Amino acid sequence: MSSVEELTERVRAFARERDWEQFHTPKNLAMALAGEVGELLAELQWLTPEQSAAVMADPELGPRVRAEIGDVTVYLVRLADVLGIDLVTAALDKLSEAGTRYTVEAARGRADKIKDA
Amino acid sequence: MSSVEELTERVRAFARERDWEQFHTPKNLAMALAGEVGELLAELQWLTPEQSAAVMADPELGPRVRAEIGDVTVYLVRLADVLGIDLVTAALDKLSEAGTRYTVEAARGRADKIKDA
Amino acid sequence: MSSVEELTERVRAFARERDWEQFHTPKNLAMALAGEVGELLAELQWLTPEQSAAVMADPELGPRVRAEIGDVTVYLVRLADVLGIDLVTAALDKLSEAGTRYTVEAARGRADKIKDA
Amino acid sequence: MSSVEELTERVRAFARERDWEQFHTPKNLAMALAGEVGELLAELQWLTPEQSAAVMADPELGPRVRAEIGDVTVYLVRLADVLGIDLVTAALDKLSEAGTRYTVEAARGRADKIKDA
């Protein structure tokens, strides 16, 4: 079993044990995901780009950023599970599409062409 | 190699081929992640909780929701890669912490105790 | 002077007194705005639509929701000020555009036509 | 009547004319607000801080940023109206609180003390 599948089952069990499935509608989970992304942004918002690049070396900020990334991942995995979406496949499909829209020749080094990764 | 690691390398290569690494500071990637989560919320915002639970069966909305989940995942994976964070491990660690804070006995069926998953 | 102009000057002075203008680039302020909107979502995420409609009557949640609305407003006003945008005029302009795109006849009672307010 | 009150009534009428009040629960409006903030972030995400400071001078980006600020404002005003919250008063109250927490002496020039504006 892949690590994402393992994580998905662990989060699923976590919700079931606490009888929280009633709260885990896609709307609620999407809101929770946005809330955790907001907390992640809050850790980085006043840093310069260079400070943000070095944030994981900071003994106070590093663990907090890692914790927020963890929270975001938990909710994304839970939301995908409830929707019946395979996260990695959905991501690979978008990457392929983006590869067609942003060819290496046209997009190299240009920020104005970056609408999606 | 796990599927997340494979996806991580594909996104990394995608950015490198296009010389986009210069734009991929943690701040910028966090903003991009928030932007994609916003697009996901937009697909669900006017639906009732019940409509949102059935959204993947909708021939028009289902693919759009899957596409946004894909975009969110691409940016989360890229951000974690740039920060040097293992997504799944960070998520499992937060889940363990939450398990301690929200014990099954105390948290069962209660929304007011749900601050984190 | 209108109340928004008064608030704008108060926030401007608040930032100046603390020598915080250096941190108030549009990028940083947009991130801060997203962070506060995230905190607002977090207060509502597990409520049913009906519970959310009654949230201001809740002695614990009401003040917290009001506080988050306050924070979101402070950052929106600050961001608009730094960008030199008149908030109310920009909003009225978008409302006019939306009025053209979503005519009363076509849009009445239909959620699928609601892309913007 | 202040400009915010005028805008509030215009947005209220806009929703009523189209029979959209049924969709305007606090949860839905908060999600819509987050969606529009996401669109705002997307306009700024790849810019350097300096480019973001000059964005309003860009003939293509300037109008788009102004449009997103307009959309964010419309939803914030609508959400506050539905919740019965006076936006400006709520903001001024938070500013006062922050003034107590971040005194000029302690907070001057320091980003680590900036948790809220």
Automatic annotation (TrEMBL), chains A, B, C, D:
The keyword Hydrolase applies. Gene3D superfamilies: MazG-like. The keyword Hydrolase applies. One of its GO terms (molecular function) is nucleoside triphosphate diphosphatase activity. Keywords: Hydrolase. One of its GO terms (biological process) is nucleoside triphosphate catabolic process. This is NTP pyrophosphatase (Non-canonical NTP hydrolase). The lineage of its organism: Bacteria, Bacillati, Actinomycetota, Actinomycetes, Micromonosporales.
